[in-house]
TrEMBL record:
Catalysed reaction, written as an equation: Mo-molybdopterin + GTP + H(+) = Mo-molybdopterin guanine dinucleotide + diphosphate
Binding site for GTP: L9, A10, G11, K21, D69, D100
Gene Ontology MF: a single term: molybdenum cofactor guanylyltransferase activity
Its EC number(s): 2.7.7.77
Annotated protein name in UniProt: Probable molybdenum cofactor guanylyltransferase
Subcellular location: Cytoplasm
Family designation: Belongs to the MobA family.
InterPro entries: MobA-like_NTP_Trfase, Molybde_CF_guanTrfase, Nucleotide-diphossugar_trans
Domain of life: Bacteria
Organism, scientific name: Anoxybacillus flavithermus
Domain MobA-like NTP transferase: 6-155
Binding site for Mg(2+): D100
Function (record text): Transfers a GMP moiety from GTP to Mo-molybdopterin (Mo-MPT) cofactor (Moco or molybdenum cofactor) to form Mo-molybdopterin guanine dinucleotide (Mo-MGD) cofactor.
Length: 191
C-alpha cells in the first residue's frame, strides 16, 4: 500500500463551460497539466479519473494512470471518481484535485499535507470561508463511507463531509483555488 496517491478528477460534463475543461489552456498548457504538476513531487502515484472519450485527447504524462469510473457508479459525480480511484489504487491517503484549477501549485498541496494526521479522515481547505472538498486530502478510512453514500445515491460532497472527521484548514492563497466553470470566468482569470 502506498502512503499518498494523487487523484485528478477530469470526467465532468463541463456543461457550463461548453467543452471539456481539462483541455482548456492557460499559457499554452492544458488545465489538467497544472493539476498533475501540483501533485507530481508530493505523491507516489497519480491517477486521472476521466471519461473514455477523453482519454485519447489527454496530453501524454509520465507516471500517470488513466481510469474511468467503476461501471456501477458511472455518472455519479466526484464521489464516484474518488471511490473509483481509491478502489483501483490502494493508499493510506489520497490528495484529490479537479482538472479546472489552473493556478493550483505544489506549495498549496504541501501546505495542505502539513496538516496530515491519523486522527482525521479528511483535511479540507477553507478559503475566504468557502470549503473546498474537491481540493482536499482523504484517508483510506472514508472509502466505505463513500461507497455507502453512492449506494444510497447521496452524491453531495458536503453531505459526505458531514459524516467524516474533518480538519478544516484555512489557507490564504485565493488565486490557487480559482476554478474555471464558465467562459466568462475563463476570460476574467485567463483572458
Amino acid at each position: 500500500m502506498k502512503e499518498i496517491v494523487g487523484i485528478v478528477l477530469a470526467g465532468g460534463q463541463s456543461r457550463r463551460f461548453g467543452e471539456p475543461k481539462a483541455f482548456a489552456k492557460r499559457d499554452g498548457k492544458e488545465f489538467i497539466l497544472y493539476s498533475v504538476e501540483a501533485l507530481q513531487h508530493v505523491v507516489e502515484e497519480i491517477v486521472v479519473v476521466t471519461r473514455p472519450e477523453f482519454m485519447e485527447h489527454l496530453p501524454v504524462m509520465e507516471h500517470v494512470s488513466f481510469i474511468e469510473d467503476l461501471k456501477k457508479y458511472k455518472g455519479k459525480g466526484p464521489l464516484a471518481g474518488l471511490f473509483s480511484a481509491m478502489s483501483q489504487c490502494e493508499a493510506k491517503w489520497y490528495i484529490v484535485l479537479p482538472c479546472d484549477t489552473p493556478f493550483m501549485n505544489a506549495r498549496m498541496i504541501k501546505a495542505l499535507q502539513s496538516h496530515q494526521n491519523e486522527r482525521w479522515e479528511a483535511i479540507v481547505p477553507r478559503v475566504n470561508g468557502q470549503i473546498q472538498p474537491l481540493i482536499a486530502m482523504y484517508h483510506d478510512r472514508v472509502k466505505g463511507k463513500i461507497q455507502s453514500m453512492l449506494e444510497k445515491n447521496e452524491l453531495s460532497m458536503h453531505r459526505f463531509l458531514s459524516v467524516c472527521h474533518v480538519n478544516y484548514v484555512d489557507l490564504m492563497d485565493e488565486r490557487a483555488f480559482v476554478n474555471i466553470n464558465t467562459k466568462e470566468e475563463y476570460e476574467r482569470f485567463i483572458g
